[in-house]
Amino acid sequence: MVDSVSNSSFRPPPPPQAREASLDEEQTALIQDTLSNFDANNLSSEDAASIVETFSDAGVTPSAEFASLLEESGFDAQTIGDLAGAGGPPPPRPNPTAQDQGVDLSSVADYLDSLTSESDDSLSSTDIATQIAQQFGLSEDQQLISVTA
């Protein structure tokens, strides 16, 4: 009996199919009313963000029905999302700098001057950077200065 069970092929049931939520009458009316306030050919990122926020607040989730309703109104769901920045990665978090931590850069410059005058070329630039970080309590993920344009 054990052999018959172990020899039989076992297939797990298929996963349940995701069922798209359909839009109710209120959501459909909200979408149409909201889009009527905007020009599909002249949509700014602020307009798109407003549209996305309105739909999100109303519990409207992306679906084929939603995309079709947008198309009927002359809008493209992908374009609205791209303009609004929806679905994209968040902006990178800036690395903390010595200045953010309250380190006086003139004292860093003075310390650097003393290191370079004492080293007589015996310290590499990496060694000097390490000593500065240790002197001013900077962790590995912090930068001494941040140069951005």
Features:
single chain, 149 residues, mainly alpha, 2 domains, 49% helix
Task: Tell me about this structure.
This protein has 149 residues and is an all-alpha fold. It folds into two domains: 60 residues, no CATH class; 57 residues, no CATH class. The protein is elongated and about 75 Å long. The termini are far apart.
Number of strands: 0
Query: If you compute it from the alpha carbons, what radius of gyration comes out, rounded to the nearest whole angstrom?
Result: 30 Å
Instruction: Give the number of domains.
Output: 2
Order of helices and strands: HHHHHHH
Shape: elongated
Count, helices: 7
Low-confidence stretches: none
Task: Show the helix and strand layout.
Blueprint: H1 2-7, H2 25-35, H3 45-57, H4 64-72, H5 77-84, H6 105-119, H7 125-135
Helix pairs in contact: 3-5
Quick recap of the structure?
By secondary structure, this protein is mostly helical. It has helices at 2-7, 25-35, 45-57, 64-72, 77-84, 105-119, 125-135.
